[in-house]
């Protein structure tokens, strides 16, 4: 189990779920850690889904209730992605290798998924059908729909 880091920078992390449901406790805990590390509110833009949106993957972790899309208020997505990469052990509790079960994707302005955002999901075991680690997609028109591994698990 991953321990919480709630009191590190703010006593109560602010997660704005809006109308979205995020069932996975591990995903919610990582959102809390991101809010603590940034000192900012995290705004959820998608959570559990039972449908595939235009451009979405048919095997999306959202369909398994194991993923969230979000922004950090006042921070560009690129800055959030860089923080997640730099603080991976603190935020995710695991740093490298097979134990790293996370999928972090920065979907850029030319994404096929409907709009720029950060996606974070927890890959179930065995999770070989899912990309793990840090990926980018849609950073330019030429990379629309193309996933590039920035840092493997």
From TrEMBL:
Protein origin, superkingdom: Bacteria
Name of the protein described by the UniProt record: Peptidase M15-like protein
């Amino acid at each position: 189990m991953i321990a919480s880091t709630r009191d590190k920078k703010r006593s109560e992390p602010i997660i704005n779920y809006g109308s979205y449901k995020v069932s996975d406790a591990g995903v919610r805990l990582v959102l809390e850690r991101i809010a603590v590390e940034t000192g900012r509110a995290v705004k959820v833009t998608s959570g559990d889904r039972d449908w595939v949106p235009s451009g979405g993957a048919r095997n999306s972790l959202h369909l398994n209730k194991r993923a969230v899309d979000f922004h950090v208020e006042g921070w560009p997505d690129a800055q959030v992605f860089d923080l997640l990469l730099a603080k991976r052990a603190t935020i995710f509790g695991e740093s490298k290798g097979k134990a790293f079960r996370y999928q972090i994707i920065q979907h850029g302005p030319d994404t096929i998924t409907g709009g720029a955002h950060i996606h974070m999901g927890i890959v179930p075991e065995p999770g070989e059908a899912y990309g793990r680690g840090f990926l980018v997609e849609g950073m330019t028109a030429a990379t629309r729909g193309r996933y590039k591994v920035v840092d493997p698990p």
